[in-house]
């Protein structure tokens, strides 16, 4: 079994390390020789794309969190309104879906019952349906009109890591493609983002080199009974995934709250020693995050902050700082999630948890 794990102690760690390759394997088949995105498996014409008046993304768990990033990417690059919903909610309301809706189901396994049912519901209402999935021939891939395969390779650990990162790559490439085709994105900006994305396997690899520092933080914090993840903008979506990772595998109570919402309730729970993980990777929100960090510090929180390298102020404000390589604000999620995965992993290991097979959870939930 250890051979299957390539010498790593757990599949989760192996899969975290496979992320640079997974990014590359998902991105490169979608880039043609001229440096344009070409998603062969899509049969969307320019006319189809111009006909959509909204995108509806539906998924569960980690895939839902990828959808939240997808919303940012699609709204930013393709200027099209996006709704994101959890599959179990979508199908029990009366969702506003028409033949002008592009519906995207995201599912690592392609077998999640709620997501499949949501896809069928959207189809019945006339939407154009698309699946982002990691499993060729899965039920969701067979039923959607178009399929975008994430080439993460088999994911064994229950907690999703490399599949999530490839779902992000999928959304960025779809958003850029739609944006160029519907005229929202100028060719120059489009190429700049693609160029930056091409450097991500290397940037992700560089981040993995800091794992000892993260293990050190985990060894200090593993006894926490409660954790709060805060962020703004796209960081809020990444914070949600970081928080889910922690609770899934370490069983520490953890929640994620948009930093600006803290003062409307959650700050009441911050006390001496409470662990707060604060994401501050967005330039235009950086100062606001610094004051958010000060607010929780003033109430005794122990703050692990994440920022782009080169930010100095944050070292004075937070208790510990994790940095990510410099990149465009829109693209940080592909990098910022990696230290959060590692933090959860090392905390779970320090607590003696069964990292790959957490209690009460299944890799894919094929019943309602
Ligand atoms: C389960 C897994 C999660 C996963 C979710 C959705 O709850 O434990 O890790 O994110 O299902 O799975 P899917 O295969 O649809 O992405």
UniProtKB/TrEMBL annotation:
Active site feature: 363
EC numbers on record: 2.6.1.16
Free-text function comment from the UniProt entry: Catalyzes the first step in hexosamine metabolism, converting fructose-6P into glucosamine-6P using glutamine as a nitrogen source.
Organism: Isachenkonia alkalipeptolytica
Domain SIS per the UniProt entry, residue ranges: 45-184, 217-358
Superkingdom, taxonomy of origin: Bacteria
Catalysed reactions listed for this entry: D-fructose 6-phosphate + L-glutamine = D-glucosamine 6-phosphate + L-glutamate
GO CC annotation: cytosol
Protein name per its UniProtKB record: Glutamine--fructose-6-phosphate aminotransferase [isomerizing]
Keywords: Aminotransferase, Cytoplasm, Glutamine amidotransferase, Repeat, Transferase
One of the record's GO molecular function terms: carbohydrate derivative binding
Record's subcellular location: Cytoplasm
GO biological process: amino sugar biosynthetic process; carbohydrate metabolic process; fructose 6-phosphate metabolic process; protein N-linked glycosylation; UDP-N-acetylglucosamine metabolic process
Subunit structure: Homodimer.
Enzyme class: transferase
Major localisation: cytoplasm
């Amino acid at each position: 079994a250890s051979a299957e794990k390539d010498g790593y102690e757990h599949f989760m760690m192996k899969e975290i390390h496979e992320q640079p390759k997974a990014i590359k394997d998902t991105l490169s088949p979608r880039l043609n020789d001229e440096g344009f995105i070409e998603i062969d498996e899509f049969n969307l014409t320019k006319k189809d794309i111009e006909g959509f008046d909204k995108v509806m993304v539906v998924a569960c768990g980690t895939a839902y969190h990828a959808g939240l990033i997808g919303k940012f990417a699609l709204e930013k690059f393709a200027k099209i309104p996006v709704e994101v919903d959890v599959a179990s909610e979508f199908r029990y309301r009366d969702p506003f879906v028409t033949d002008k809706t592009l519906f995207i189901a995201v599912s690592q396994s392609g077998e999640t019952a709620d997501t499949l049912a949501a896809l069928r519901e959207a189809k019945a209402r006339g939407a154009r349906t698309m699946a982002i999935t990691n499993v060729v021939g899965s039920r969701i891939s067979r039923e959607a009109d178009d399929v975008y395969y994430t080439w993460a390779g088999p994911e064994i650990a229950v907690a999703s890591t490399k599949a999530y990162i490839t779902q992000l790559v999928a959304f960025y490439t779809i958003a850029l493609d739609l944006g160029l085709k519907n005229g929202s994105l100028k060719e120059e900006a489009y190429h700049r983002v693609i160029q930056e994305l091409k450097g991500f396997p290397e940037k992700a690899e560089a981040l993995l080199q800091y794992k000892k520092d993260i293990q050190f933080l985990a060894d200090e914090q593993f006894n926490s009974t409660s954790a709060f993840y805060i962020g703004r903008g796209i960081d809020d979506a990444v914070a949600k995934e970081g928080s889910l990772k922690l609770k899934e595998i370490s069983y520490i109570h953890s929640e994620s709250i948009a930093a600006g919402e803290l003062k409307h309730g959650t700050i009441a729970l911050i006390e001496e020693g409470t662990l707060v993980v604060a994401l501050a990777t967005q330039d235009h929100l950086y100062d606001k995050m610094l004051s958010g960090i000060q607010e929780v510090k003033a109430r005794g929180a122990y703050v692990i902050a994440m920022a782009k390298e080169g930010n100095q102020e944050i070292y004075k404000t937070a208790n510990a700082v994790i940095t990510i390589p410099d990149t465009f604000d829109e693209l940080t999620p592909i990098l910022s999630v990696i230290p959060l995965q590692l933090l959860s992993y090392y905390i779970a290991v320090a607590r003696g948890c069964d990292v790959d097979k957490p209690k009460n959870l299944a890799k894919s939930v094929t019943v309602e």
